[in-house]
Amino acid sequence: MKIRLVNILKTLAFVCVAGLCVFGATVVLRDKDSEYKYADFFDRADQIDVLFIGSSHVINAINPAVLYGEYGITSYNMGGHGSIMQSTYWELIEALQYCTPKAVVVDTYMLQKDYKYLDEMYEDSTDEDRASSVAQLHLNMDCWPLDKLKVAAINDLIHDEEIKKQFLVPFYIYHHRWDVLKSNDYKTLMGDGDRNKYFGAEMRYGIELTPGIYGDPEDDNGLGGHTIGEEYLRKIIDECQRKGIDVYVTFLTCSASVDDKRAMDSARIICEQYDVPFVNMQNMGVVDLYTDLNDTGHMNANGAIKATKCIGQILADSGDCADHRDDPAYGYWQERADQFYHEIYDIAVTSDSVYQQLNYLAGAEDVSTILYINDGSQAFGDSEMRTLIHNFIVTSTIYHTDGPYIMIKDAASGQVYEASGAQALDGIETGLGTLHYQPVEHLFRFLYTDEDPENNLLYDDSKIDYDIQIITYDAQSGEILSHNYYKSYGCNYTKG
After folding, report:
1. Cα–Cα distance measured from residue 479 to residue 471, given in angstroms and rounded to the nearest whole number
2. DSSP-derived secondary structure letter, 2
3. Dihedral of the CA atoms 333, 339, 341, 343 (nearest 10)?
4. Do residues 372 and 485 touch, judged by C-beta distance below 8 A?
5. Rounded Cα gap, residues 289 and 303, in angstroms
6. Percent of the chain surpassing pLDDT 90
7. 120-165 pLDDT, tens per residue?
8. Given a cut of 50, is residue 19 above it in pLDDT?
9. Is 425 in a helix, a strand, or coil?
10. Mean pLDDT along residues 307-322
């Protein structure tokens, strides 16, 4: 009897150890993208007042860190890459098991998609398209625990039984990841893995200089019939209204195609039927297609700041979302807001791209800018450069093709000063000091302050052939933060 009891105990111990090993291997081996995105959602679900749902247009266009920094409103960006409306619906249903938001903001990009299953799509869809569609779903679904709700979601989204196993039994798809494991895979086992910095948002910092511009539909009747996308948008609105949650429907700015614009019209029609607000940012002039896109379909961080402030003002005006900035319990949200603005500050000051630096300096509130372009520079014939410079509230008659040209944006005073050709600037009061500018000849010009008249800010013998200079200085202290030189050649710019 004693031997039998010992054997039973050994068996139980073995089963427990084996189970722990399998569990540990499952945690270590599974892809961490979903956990990375949603870690703060699970940790702070009880503090979240707003959910943003939709596709990657939402991921890149709405920054909860900005929303908190500007309005004190707590939110989470639940957007998923390639997330069509039925995926978005199920993610909302999952999220509502953990939080009770005051408002849900749903974007309607891809509303025109009219297929039921992500692993089948359309008849003419390629195998690569179907595989990508399934792979993208993992970002939004892997984080949720396996229960009846997740089974229902996967059954509704995926048709093939083998593919369903990827979502219901993660070890089924991730068991082969041994050769790509990184330190974060092991940190997750201890509960301290990496996490998204901006509450689900992903910021991009490029500039789409040539966005596509498309015509309008022949009528404003929308998609002209029922689509599965429209069906699930209605389900989202129904769910929110049933739970007493304010719902806002958006279409966020992009290079919208004719089909996209038909989807906008359908979204507007549905909103009118349900009496909910439709925020069509495409027609509001909030985001500049020529400076605020990272690519034709997604905003950059500049665009995200503008889009987030726009939505934030609407939410703040509703009076339903509290401002938590004076509450120490929400200090973590402020930390993330400060972190984002510091990141933008660094890009504005230290970027190696003249396009990127000008784009982020134009909106920088704590950084002053001096831009000098020598006469003969190819920048004067660069339409993209012209657009970026005009963001500083530059006078088109001053900035012309002859040069030289200087622009001083003094952030402390809010003033912008310009001179072109033989024009001089004399006695300008700035945070840097009292500035004087005088062009002398092609490769020589004076820019100095009364406080340091011996220091010609625009002259460096080793950079004599660089035709563009950008000087930044702190708005309050006047400390020079950076002095970047660029050489133009064929409208390409090399930093010196």
Report:
1. 11
2. H
3. -150
4. no
5. 9
6. 69
7. 999 999 999 999 999 999 989 999 999 999 999 999 999 999 999 8
8. no
9. strand
10. 96
Residue 386 tokens read as 């012209």
Contact call for residues 266 and 111 (beta carbons, < 8 A): yes
Task: Indicate the pLDDT class of residue 21, thresholds 50, 70 and 90.
Answer: very low
Closest CA to 11 of 3, 42, 232, 321: 3
Rounded CA-CA distance 357/302 in Å is 12
**Is the Cβ–Cβ distance between 199 and 69 less than 8 Å?**
no
Exposure string for 422-441, b = 16+ CB within 10 A, e = fewer:
eeeeeebebbbbebbbbbee
Torsion angle of the four alpha carbons 460, 466, 468, 471, in this order, in degrees rounded to the nearest 10: -30
Torsion of CA 115, 118, 122, 125, to 10 degrees: 160
- Mean pLDDT, the chain, rounded, equals 88
> How far is 496 from 473, CA to CA, in rounded Å?
19
Convert the pLDDT of each residue in 243-298 to its tens digit.
Answer: 999 999 999 999 999 999 999 999 999 999 999 999 999 989 899 998 999 999 89
Comparing C-alpha atoms, which of 68, 72, 77 is closest to residue 341?
Answer: 68
Q: What is the pLDDT of residue 415?
A: 93
Closest by CA position to 486, among listed 368, 385, 392: 385
- Pick from 245, 285, 249, 248: nearest CA to 266: 249
- pLDDT the model gives residue 178: 44
State the amino acid at position 451 in one-letter form. E
Phi and psi at 107, nearest 5°, equal -90, 150
Rounded Cα distance, 448 and 235, in Å: 64
Tokens coding 174: 């991730």
Q: Any idea what DSSP says for residue 81?
A: T
- pLDDT in the model for residue 22: 44
- CA 430/CA 437 separation, integer angstroms: 13
What is the pTM assigned to this prediction? 0.87
